[in-house]
Specification:
Elements: H1 2-11, E1 13-15, E2 19-21, H2 32-45, E3 53-57, H3 61-72, E4 76-79, E5 91-98, E6 103-110, E7 119-127, H4 131-143, E8 146-156, H5 161-167, E9 172-182, E10 185-188
Parallel strand pairs: 3-4, 3-7, 7-8, 8-9
Antiparallel strand pairs: 1-2, 5-6, 9-10
C-alpha cells in the first residue's frame, strides 16, 4: 500500500535493535484516515472470504482492527495481556513473546466471544518474528474457529516470521513489507 509506505519513509524512524518507530501515525497517535484506507485494502484482499470476527492483540492493533471491522461489518475481539476483574468465566490463553517489549505475556480471550462457528481474520500493526501471531493462532485453534488469514500493517520481512508462517500455509496479507532497514534507509519488498 503506497500511502502507508510513504508515511513510513517520511515519518518512520529506525532505532537500534531493529525497532521501527511509527508512533506519529500508527501506534501512539493514530491517523484514522490512513486506518480507513488500510481497512479498504484489507477488505479488498479478503473480499471473497466470509469473515465473522476480527481478532487482534492488546494494544496497538486495536485501533486498526476496529476500522477494518467496520469495513467487514463484524465485531472485534482483542486478546488481553493482563488479568482483570472484568475478565470472568472460561478463557482461552496462550503465551506470547513481545519483540517490542522484550518480555512474555499470557494473552486471554473469553470463550464467549470466539467459537467454532467463527471465521477469523487476525489484524495487527506489526509482524516481526511472528510470536504474537502464533499466540493468537493458538487461541483461534483452541476455540475451534476457522482462521481465514492475517492482515498486517507493517511486516519486518528480514526477521522471517511472516515467511515462516506462510510456509506453514497461513495466508498473510501485509500492506508494507520491509526487507532491510537502517538508521538512514528503509527498503521495501516489491
Amino acid at each position: 500500500m503506497e500511502q502507508l509506505k510513504q508515511r513510513i519513509l517520511t515519518e518512520g524512524r529506525v532505532k537500534s535493535g531493529n525497532v521501527l518507530k511509527v508512533d506519529s501515525f500508527l501506534n501512539h497517535q493514530m491517523d484514522i484516515h490512513l486506518f480507513d484506507e488500510m481497512g479498504k485494502a484489507f477488505k479488498e484482499r479478503y473480499k471473497e472470504d466470509e469473515i465473522t470476527k476480527i481478532v487482534t492483540i492488546e494494544a496497538s492493533g486495536i485501533g486498526i482492527a476496529c476500522i477494518v471491522a467496520r469495513h467487514f461489518n463484524v465485531p472485534v475481539v482483542f486478546a488481553k495481556k493482563s488479568e482483570s476483574r472484568n475478565l470472568d468465566g472460561d478463557l482461552y490463553t496462550s503465551p506470547i513473546y513481545s519483540f517490542t517489549h522484550q518480555k512474555e505475556y499470557m494473552v486471554r480471550v473469553s470463550k464467549k466471544f470466539l467459537s467454532a462457528e467463527d471465521k477469523v481474520l487476525v489484524i495487527d500493526d506489526f509482524l516481526a518474528n511472528g510470536k504474537a501471531l502464533i499466540g493468537l493462532l493458538d487461541i483461534i485453534k483452541q476455540s475451534g474457529a476457522t482462521l481465514v488469514g492475517a492482515g498486517i500493517a507493517i511486516e519486518k520481512g528480514f526477521q522471517g516470521g511472516g515467511d515462516a508462517l506462510r510456509e506453514q500455509g497461513i495466508r498473510i496479507e501485509s500492506l508494507a513489507i520491509i526487507d532491510e532497514m537502517g538508521e538512514d534507509f528503509i527498503k521495501f519488498r516489491d
